[in-house]
Write a structure and sequence with these properties.
Distance between the termini: 46 Å
Number of helices: 5
Strand content: under 5%
Oligomer: single chain
Order of helices and strands: HHHHHEE
Number of strands: 2
Shape: elongated
Structural class: mainly alpha
Radius of gyration: 29 Å
Largest sheet: 2 strands, antiparallel
C-alpha cells in the first residue's frame, strides 16, 4: 500500500475513533443521568441501558469505518488497519462497560452485590463484542483487492516482461514488426549495430 494512502486511512480511522469515543461517553453519561433522575443508578437497569447504548455505538462505528475506508481502498491491508482500529475501539467500550457495571451493581469501592449479575452482564457484553466483530468480519470479503501499489507493481512487471520479449524477438520471425514504447522496430536477428 502506498504510504500516503496508508497515512490517509490511519487519519480517517483516528478521526472516526475520536468522534465515536466522545459520542459513546456522552451517550453513556445520558444513560447515567436518566437512571439517576429515576433513582435507579445503582441497579441492573443501568447496566442494561449501558450495554444497549454501547452496542449501538459499536455498530455505528464499524459501519462508518467500513464505509469510509472502503471508499479509499479495498485492499487486505486496509481491512487489517480497520480490524485493528475496531479492536481498539471495542477495548475502549469494554472499559466503559466495566465502569457501568461498577456503577450499576456495586457501590464505591465495594464488591459487587450480586456476582451472578456480574456473570450475566459480562456474558451479555461478550456477545455484544462478538456481534460487532462479526459485523466487521462480514466485510472482510469486500476487502480482497490487492493494494494499488501491488497491483501497479504486477502491471509493471507484466509490461516489462512483454517489452523484453519484444526486444529479444521471442516468438517473432525475422522482419516481423513489434510495437513498444519507443516506436516501431523491425526485428532482424542478423543486424549488427555500427
Amino acid at each position: 500500500m502506498d504510504p500516503r494512502l496508508r497515512e490517509q486511512i490511519r487519519l480517517i480511522l483516528d478521526d472516526a475513533t475520536d468522534r465515536a469515543r466522545k459520542a459513546a461517553s456522552e451517550r453513556l453519561q445520558a444513560v447515567y443521568a436518566d437512571r439517576n433522575r429515576r433513582g435507579l443508578l445503582r441497579s441492573s437497569i443501568t447496566v442494561d441501558g449501558a450495554i444497549e447504548s454501547l452496542e449501538e455505538d459499536a455498530s455505528r462505528y464499524v459501519a462508518e469505518c467500513v464505509d469510509r475506508v472502503a471508499a479509499m481502498d479495498k485492499s487486505t491491508e486496509a481491512f487489517a488497519m480497520l480490524a485493528e482500529a475496531t479492536q481498539g475501539f471495542l477495548t475502549f467500550l469494554t472499559a466503559k462497560f466495566d465502569d457501568a457495571a461498577r456503577k450499576g451493581l456495586g457501590g464505591r469501592g465495594e464488591q459487587s452485590r450480586a456476582p451472578n449479575f456480574d456473570d450475566q452482564f459480562t456474558k451479555m457484553w461478550r456477545e455484544v463484542c462478538a456481534r460487532s466483530t462479526r459485523q466487521l468480519e462480514i466485510h472482510r470479503f469486500t476487502f480482497t483487492m490487492p493494494s494499488p501499489a501491488a497491483e501497479a507493481l504486477a502491471s509493471f512487471r507484466t509490461r516489462r516482461t512483454k517489452a523484453a520479449n519484444r526486444l529479444l524477438g521471442i516468438g517473432m520471425r525475422c522482419g516481423q514488426r513489434s510495437r513498444f514504447a519507443s516506436g516501431t522496430v523491425i526485428f532482424n536477428p542478423n543486424h549488427r549495430p555500427t
